[in-house]
Amino acid sequence: TSLEKSLIQSQIEPKEGGLSGLVYASKTGKRYYYSHCGGLGRIKPENLISFQDPTEAEGRGYTLASGCHPR
What is the residue-level pLDDT of the chain in tens, covering all 71 positions? Predict the structure, then answer.
């Protein structure tokens, strides 16, 4: 729903002063995303997880989604 999408978007907006460094993934998937990547919007709110940075995500077995690059 649009409410769910706005809740997700509010959770992934870059923080004041630049990107927070967070990356996002689905707890049911294998890929991680930056906040500006299109695939992030397909993750169900109940499955959305975050990591402090790509190193943490990769340490937990996630890989960067294809077509999703840091800015």
Answer: 554 555 555 555 444 333 457 999 999 999 999 999 999 999 999 999 999 999 999 999 999 999 999 88
Q: Token digits for 35?
A: 């906040």
The amino acid at 1: T
| Nearest residue to 47 (alpha-carbon basis) of 31, 66, 22, 25 | 25
In this structure, what token pair is assigned to residue 17?
Answer: 């002063």
Which tokens sit at 26?
Answer: 């689905």
